[in-house]
Design a protein that fits this description.
With 530 residues, the protein is α+β, with helices and mostly antiparallel strands. The chain folds into 3 domains: 3-170 and 236-271, Rossmann fold, CATH 3.40.50; 278-380, Translation factors (Elongation Factor Tu (Ef-tu), domain 3, Beta Barrel), CATH 2.40.30; 395-524, Peptide chain release factor 3, domain III (Alpha-Beta Plaits, 2-Layer Sandwich), CATH 3.30.70.3280. The protein is 25% helix and 31% strand. It is built from 13 helices and 33 strands. The strands form 8 sheets. An 8-stranded antiparallel beta sheet has the order 28-25-27-26-30-31-29-32. Strands 2-3-1-4-5-11-6 form a 7-stranded mixed beta sheet, with helices on both faces. Strand 7 and strand 8 (179-182) form a beta hairpin. The protein is globular. The structure holds guanosine-5'-diphosphate. Residues 18, 20-26, 89, 140-141, 143-144, 254-256 line the site of guanosine-5'-diphosphate (GDP). Guanosine-5'-diphosphate (GDP) binds at residues 18, 20-26, 89, 140-141, 143-144, 254-256. This is Peptide chain release factor 3. It is found in: Cytoplasm. One of its GO terms (cellular component) is cytosol.
Length: 530
C-alpha cells in the first residue's frame, strides 16, 4: 500500500487533441466551470493566442510570459484531481505539442461534426497510438449542421484506424438537433442550450410515453432505425480495449451550448485511467512507488532578454514531490535541489509545495536539463525513464550565417537551441557541418531560432526554405548502405549530428515508393530518443 494511495489514485492526467477551431478551448473551459475552477465563461479564452502575424510573435510572447505556453490546468471535480495538459495549436504548433502527449495518461479527441477528422488531429492521434493510451472522442458542434453520425464513425475508423463505440447518439443536428440518446441507460436527453449549463436537463426512457413527443416523430423514427443499425454495426464497449487504446468511446455534444459536456466528463473520468506506470532502465515504475521520480518533457526558454532562465516541465511518475527536496538528476550525473517549482492552477501560475504522481511541475532551469531527463529520489539511484522520441519536422530550411567570423558562436547557439528541443538540426549527407539544415514542426520555431541567435548569441542568420515536408528515419541504419538507396527524384539524403542518416521528401507518396523500390528497407516516422 502506497503512502500516497489516496492522492495518486484520484488523479486523471490527460491532453485534449484537436484541429484548431474544433472546440478544444471551449470544452476545456466548460470542464473548468464544472470543477468550479473558473466561474465565468471566457477565462480560458483570454489565455489563448489571438490569431497573429508571425512578426507579432515576440510581443505576444512577452505579454503572455510563460502562461499561454505553460503546460497544465489543474482542478477538482467529484473527488477527482484533474490535470489537463495543453497541446498548443495554431501557430504555436511545435514539437512541444507532441511531447506534451508523452506526459498524458489518456487523450480526448475533439472533432468538429461538420468537418470530421482533420490534419492536426491525425498527427496528434498517431502519437497517442504509439503510446497505446486510451483515446476518447467528443464529436462537437451538433447544434450546427453536421455530417451524418454513421459517416463520422466510419471516417474515424478508416482514417485513424481505431474502432469506435458510441456511448450516446445524436438525434438530428443543427436546427433540428433534439438531443442525445444514451445507449447504456436507454434515455433520451433533450437539447437545451445553456452557457454555464449547471441545471438539470429533462430525460426520458426511450420507450415510455412522451419520448416521441420529446424529440418529434421524425427524430424518433430515425433514432429507432439508427439504434437498430448501431447495435448490429458497432463495437461493443469493452473497458480493457478502451484502456489499451484499441477502442475509442464516442460522445456527441456541443461544447459551446454546454450540452453533453457534463455527461462526457462523468463517463470519461470513470473510463480513463489514474496515473500509469512508466517504463525505465530498471523496469516498470509504479506511480504508487513511495520514491519520487519524474521526467522532463518540455523546456520553455524565457524570451525576455533580461531573464535568460528557462522552465523545465516535468511529469511526476511516482511518489510525492516536496519543495526543496534533493533529487538525482540522472543525465546530469549529480544531486540537485528542486526549488521554486510552479504549477498552473486554472489560469494562474502558483508556487507548489507538494505534488504527486500524475501532476506536472515547472522547475526553474539554469540550463542543466534536456528533454527526456530523469529526476528521482536518490534512493532510486541512477535509473532512467525511457527517452522521448524526436518527432517529424515538416518544415525545413538551410541556415546561412551572415558573418562567417562568428562560426563558433553560431554552432554553440544553434546546438543549444536544438538541445532544448525547439528545433532539429541536420547536415548534408556528404559535406557535413558546412551546411546546416534546420527542421521544425511549426514554422513559428524558425522565428524563435532567428530571434534567439541574434539576441542571445549575437549571430545573424538567413533561412532559405527547402521544399521538403516529410522526413523518415532509417531503421537499423548501421546495416543499410544509404548511398545505394534507390530514391525518388524529390528525395534528399541528410544526416543528424550523430551521423545517423535520414531521408527528406517533398511528396507524401514518395516514402512508400522508396520502400517499394528498396525491398528490406524500413522507415520510421519517429526518431530515436532524446
Ligand atoms: P479550438 O481552436 O479547438 O480551441 O476551438 P475553440 O474552442 O476556440 O472554438 C472555435 C470556435 O468554434 C469558437 O468560435 C467557438 O465559439 C466555436 N464553438 C466551439 N464549440 C462549439 C459548439 O459546440 N457549437 C458551435 N456552434 N460553435 C462552437
Amino acid at each position: 500500500m502506497s503512502l500516497y494511495e489516496n492522492e495518486i489514485s484520484k488523479r486523471r492526467t490527460f491532453a485534449i487533441i484537436s484541429h484548431p477551431d474544433a472546440g478544444k478551448t471551449t470544452l476545456t473551459e466548460k470542464f473548468l466551470l464544472y470543477g468550479g475552477a473558473i466561474n465565468q465563461a471566457g477565462s480560458v479564452k483570454g489565455r489563448k493566442t489571438a490569431k497573429h502575424a508571425v512578426s507579432d510573435w515576440m510581443e505576444i510572447e512577452k505579454q503572455r510570459g510563460i502562461s499561454v505556453t505553460s503546460s497544465v490546468l489543474q482542478f477538482h471535480y467529484e473527488g477527482y484531481c484533474i490535470n489537463i495538459l495543453d497541446t498548443p495549436g495554431h501557430q504555436d504548433f511545435s514539437e512541444d505539442t507532441y511531447r506534451t502527449l508523452m506526459a498524458a495518461d489518456s487523450a480526448v479527441m475533439v472533432i468538429d461534426a461538420s468537418k470530421g477528422v482533420e490534419a492536426q488531429t491525425i498527427k496528434l492521434f498517431k502519437v497517442c497510438v504509439m503510446r497505446h493510451i486510451p483515446i476518447f472522442t467528443f464529436i462537437n458542434k451538433l447544434d450546427r449542421e453536421a455530417n451524418d453520425p454513421f459517416d463520422l464513425m466510419d471516417e474515424i475508423e478508416r482514417v485513424l484506424g481505431i474502432k469506435t463505440c458510441p456511448i450516446n447518439w445524436p438525434i438530428g443536428c443543427g436546427k433540428n438537433f433534439k438531443g442525445v440518446y444514451d445507449r447504456n441507460t436507454n434515455k433520451i436527453t433533450t437539447f437545451v442550450a445553456a452557457d454555464a449549463g449547471m441545471h438539470e436537463i429533462e430525460s426520458h426512457e426511450l420507450d415510455v410515453e412522451g419520448a416521441e413527443d420529446q424529440v418529434g416523430i421524425i427524430g424518433y423514427q430515425k433514432l429507432l432505425e439508427d439504434i437498430e443499425l448501431l447495435d448490429g454495426a458497432c463495437e461493443e464497449f469493452d473497458q480493457d480495449k478502451v484502456s489499451n487504446g484499441e477502442i475509442s468511446p464516442v460522445f456527441f455534444g456541443s461544447a459551446l451550448t454546454n450540452f453533453g459536456v457534463e455527461t462526457f466528463l462523468e463517463h470519461f473520468l470513470k473510463m480513463t485511467t489514474s496515473p500509469l506506470p512508466r517504463h525505465s532502465s530498471i523496469g516498470e515504475i509504479s506511480p504508487f512507488d513511495d520514491n519520487f521520480s519524474a521526467f522532463v518533457f518540455k523546456i520553455q526558454a524565457n524570451m525576455n532578454k533580461a531573464h535568460r532562465d528557462r522552465i523545465a516541465f516535468m511529469r511526476i511518475c511516482s511518489g510525492k514531490f516536496e519543495a526543496g527536496m534533493e533529487v538525482n538528476h540522472v543525465q546530469g550525473g549529480r544531486k540537485i535541489r528542486l526549488t521554486q517549482p510552479q504549477q498552473m492552477m486554472a489560469s494562474e501560475r502558483t508556487i507548489v509545495e507538494e505534488a504527486y504522481a500524475g501532476d506536472i511541475i515547472g522547475v526553474f532551469d539554469p540550463g542543466i536539463f534536456s528533454i527526456g531527463d530523469t529526476i528521482c529520489s536518490p534512493k532510486m539511484g541512477n535509473m532512467a525513464f525511457d527517452g522521448i522520441p524526436t518527432f517529424a519536422p515538416e518544415h525545413f530550411a538551410r541556415v546561412r550565417q551572415m558573418d562567417t567570423m562568428k562560426r563558433k558562436q553560431f554552432i554553440k547557439g544553434i546546438s543549444q537551441i536544438a538541445l532544448e528541443g525547439a528545433i532539429q538540426i541536420f547536415q548534408e549527407f556528404n559535406t557535413g557541418m558546412e551546411e546546416i539544415i534546420v527542421g521544425v514542426v511549426g514554422v513559428l520555431q524558425f522565428d524563435v531560432l532567428k530571434f534567439r541567435l541574434e539576441n542571445e548569441y549575437n549571430v545573424e542568420i538567413r533561412l532559405d526554405p527547402l521544399p521538403y515536408e516529410y522526413i523518415r528515419w532509417i531503421e537499423d541504419w548501421e546495416n543499410v548502405d544509404v548511398a545505394r538507396i534507390n530514391g525518388t527524384s524529390d528525395m534528399k539524403k541528410i544526416k543528424d549530428l550523430k551521423d545517423r542518416p535520414l531521408l527528406l521528401f517533398a511528396n507524401s507518396w514518395s516514402p512508400q515508393m522508396v520502400l517499394e523500390r528498396n525491398p528490406g528497407l524500413k522507415l520510421s516516422e519517429f526518431g530515436t530518443e532524446h
